[in-house]
Amino acid sequence: MLSNKNFIQQSLELHLFFARIMKEHSFFLEVGFTPKDSNYIEAADNFRMEFDKLLADVIAISDGIVSNDILESGEAITPFTIAAEQASAYFTGVKIATNITKVEAELMRGSLNRNNHEDLERKVFDINNRALRLVRGLIEYKTMLLSDVLSCKLFTVNYPLLIDHILREAKLYSTLVRRLQNREDIDLEREAYEQETFWNRIMAEHSKFIRGLLDPTEDQLINTANNFGHQFDELTREARESMSKSMPIFEVTDDSYKATVEIKKFKAQGTQGLLECKIKSIIMPLLGDHVLREANHYLRLLKIFRKMPDMYYEQD
Asked: Quick one: angle between helices 38-60 and 118-150, nearest 10?
């Protein structure tokens, strides 16, 4: 049973990462349609603004509560986030709420030491319910969109795989919030198998999206992205095998950690290159920062997994 303190802290930390991810998914979808599909554009814009509001409300009560690990991990924001938002707003004409990011950058770490958490707990419970309603709607929207794309009822510049990719992330967010609302003690250490399988696949797909969005003349970057795609495909396969205990999870964790450190560097350099107009591509700067934050999030999880005792990894 999750304590009140952990319920509050874990909920806020989850939203600081995922609410921003969801609002950016909505943005990427919004700017990927043709003018004909104004209904899809309007719906995506509404989701984007609703997640803006959710994230702003989360930030408003997170100061002095969220952990230093979260704030320092780079999964909530990075040094590139504001510039990436400003550049992407300039390119698209969409009014991205950079003020939210500026406020978030000032968040202070802390711990919830007060005995009476009832008011804050009630606020967090309500925020979780809002998040569940929002993400449920976004899941339905993405599911319908993917069906329409696959049946050639509409065109978007977003790959079908990307739509499926962001649909899986929305479902994970929903699952984690529901578990928090049920006061389940989410011990990520016990979930190493599932998390590594999930995030290694995400890293592989990021690499393939980057490969496909680079200008054909960017041979070196294309080759690097392609190699990361193959590497994380293999790590995904190994993580699945570890679930059946055919190979020890600690070996996969170490390999995943090393690979994610490297792809993080690649994504950071790529985001900076996009912002400095040194890379030829059709990659939105905010997409570069988005995938960087997801690598940072996965790295934080892997650091937790690597601290697990060997006896956990080698259990029968």
From this structure: 160
Are both 37 and 155 inside the same structural domain?
A: yes
Distance from C-alpha of 252 to C-alpha of 95, rounded to nearest angstrom: 42
Both 48 and 129 in one domain: the answer is yes
Task: Residue count of the chain, please give it.
Answer: 316
* Residue 77 identity (one-letter amino acid): I
136 contact partners, CB below 8 Å, separation of at least 6: 174
| Amino acid identity for residue 6 in this structure | N
Question: Containing domain of residue 92, as a range?
Answer: 1-186
∠ CA 224-225-227, rounded to 5°:
65
SS3 state of residue 63: coil
Chain segment 97-140, per-residue pLDDT in tens: 999 999 999 997 766 655 557 899 999 999 999 999 999 999 99
Contact by Cβ (8 Å): 56, 2: no
CA dist., res. 310 & res. 296, Å (int): 24
